[in-house]
Description:
Elements: E1 6-9, H1 14-25, E2 29-34, H2 40-51, E3 56-61, H3 71-74, E4 79-82, H4 95-116, E5 122-126, H5 137-142, H6 162-179, E6 185-191, E7 193-195, H7 206-212, E8 227-232, H8 233-245, E9 251-255, E10 258-261, H9 262-273, H10 286-292, H11 300-306, H12 316-321, H13 329-347
Parallel strand pairs: 1-2, 1-4, 2-3, 4-5, 5-6, 6-9, 7-8
Antiparallel strand pairs: 8-10
Helix pairs in contact: 1-2, 1-8, 4-6, 9-13
Bound molecules: NADP nicotinamide-adenine-dinucleotide phosphate (NAP).
NADP nicotinamide-adenine-dinucleotide phosphate binds at residues 10, 12-16, 35, 42, 63-65, 83-87, 102, 126, 128, 167, 191, 193-194, 203-205, 207.
Amino acid sequence: MDDTPVLVTGANGYLGSWLTRTLLEAGHTVHATVRDPDNTAKVGHLKEAAASAPGRLVLFAADLFDDGAFDEPMGGCGVVFHTASPFIINDIKDPDAELLQPALRGTENVLGSANRSDSVQRVVLTSSVVAIYGDAIDMHVAGVDAFDEQHWNTTSSLSHQPYNYSKVRAEKRAWEMADAQSRWRLVVINPGLVLGPSLTQASDSASLSTMRQFVDGTLKLGAPELEFGVVDVRDVAEAHRRAGLQDDVSGRHICSNRTVSLLEIGQILRAEFGARYPFPTRTLPKPLIWLVGPFSGLPRAFVSRNVGYPLAFDNRRIRQTLGMTFRPVEQTLCDHFRQMQADHRATR
Ligand code: NAP
């Protein structure tokens, strides 16, 4: 096999960890950037993965805000997987500093290094379905049955859905930079809500806090009628690997298995783990959520434009061009929940 190294940014993150492990298991030399390679809590699991895999792990320190920080880690790499970007949706005080700047400046910084690194042939960017739509109501407004790769989020801003805004701005900038040169090709993966077991307990990913709501009592009285395109973290990692290493891949790829509501997630978990956990058993009326939402982190504009609106994604492109198949959502959710139980037992 080709022994040209590959680079993963944000290699210690929830998704980055699975991607790094998938690449190591496939025998690649992985240049992995993290903010602090000496932080055992953040990188210990990567070293463990490398110890039992045929590939080789080389850790580098790089911050998205340090211009040129990715030049050295990118040295000799053929493919760059750029996953690093904050995925936070609650308690955001300064959306520009906490979300937009790391997403946008980070993308400019990493792709700037790709422009200076002669070995780089391909960049795989982790975007999101939220670069495709802003709110669930957008599907109704567009008059379509499902979003596909032609759609772009035009409704998010720093004051409304700032995470979604950070993703669409970063992806657009990546396309501008890709179009301005001809050596490397940009391939974009647009995952839905990523769930499934985490290799790291030291991630701030909203994926992990979303699942924690099913055990901490947040949804005990009922769930807002909200839908997500859910996808398994292991499948997203595999989609990235294929996007980076398969021939003739280009463009955007929605990476979502199927739409699931918060209530259905509760029902799936309840069927497997029983009623001793506070899984939601009913949906809450929209007017009630509109009233109390702002006190529990759901702004009224979000409630108005998302609660009660169906959501669907057309995933034909990724199935056809990358040959992806997806684990059943039931497996994703139950494996994730089992890992949370195991982590909880280990820390008691
Ligand atoms: P995560 O676990 O929080 O990973 C984010 C990664 O970005 C971490 O490695 C983090 O490093 C790194 N990072 C943040 N700020 C940085 C900075 N200033 N400099 C260097 N690294 C920085 O979240 P995730 O869910 O795995 O998200 C990974 C990617 O997938 C993101 O691009 C996200 O937008 C995208 N995505 C996620 C989902 C999902 O449902 N999870 C869905 C679609 C797209 P530290 O550990 O040092 O903070």
